[in-house]
Amino acid sequence: MTARPLPIEQVAQKSGQILDEMGKAIVGKRPFLERILCAILADGHVLIEDLPGLAKTLSARSFAIVLGLTFKRIQFTPDLLPADITGGYVFNRNRGSFELVKGPIFANLILGDEINRAPAKTQAAMLEAMEERQVTLEGETLRLPSPFIVLATQNPIESEGTFPLPEAQLDRFMIRLAVGYPSAEEELEILKRRWERREDAIELRQMTDTDELLSMRRTIEMVYVHPDLAQYIVALVQASRTEMHVAVGASPRASLALLKLSRARAAMEGRDFVIPDDVKCIAREVLMHRIMLKPDVWAIGRAVRDVVESLIRSIPVPKVKGL
Predict the structure, then answer these.
(1) What is the C-alpha to C-alpha distance for residues 289 and 250, in angstroms, rounded to an integer?
(2) Mean pLDDT, rounded, for 110-138
(3) In terms of domains, do 82 and 25 share one?
């Protein structure tokens, strides 16, 4: 059954309630949580890259609880096999036949913890699931639950025992985020909450369910995008391919991601139309992991972030009448 869209005001109200509840577990990271929720509403996957201990795993687990989604965690290790993710057919001696044993990929929200600790052949097991929302076992195609979201965490590539993610897999993540260290005040608040509740576990309420989440997604598909803003999105992505310091620019998936994320952000703010700030707000997180710099740029100390910031500043923001 196709989900029915909700009033735009209801989407904004529900988004605020979800973020408020998430704030009980994650202190002082509202913009970070907003971007994750934005990607979830836009039907995209999220890659969270940062140092250990900065609540990457807690964020994914908390979202599953608050959104009312089935949740599975996959700990990526160097010896993890593709079948450990997708499952497979196992012979049942009692029945004398092979039976399907589904792997942890069959859930609404998948936490791929330390995803870059597994080699490329295991990363490849995620590609079909992330793009097609299905897996193929012994020639049989099995659909994954809807919604299906991957929140993957990875340690910086300089960390010991990590493997670079293939470009094809990076491109399938709608956005890449970093958590960042908390401020002194936020870290003190984390300690205060811990000693007041007297246990590690954090009680979170379920604020929605899969049906309502799918309805929110239907609403986002109705958000208006002015043709000039669509052209602005294309110009940003096209510029990433022609920038002098870039070896490989962003693919058309980046354009689609900007379109969907800008619509989701507009709906979260109670608007049924996109404004330029919706695009600019999320452009960095969409472009940074899709761009490869030329070797000589690395040699002079230029970072991807600097190049992306320069690229965004170089594209004129359209002035759309009526917005």
Answers:
(1) 9
(2) 85
(3) yes
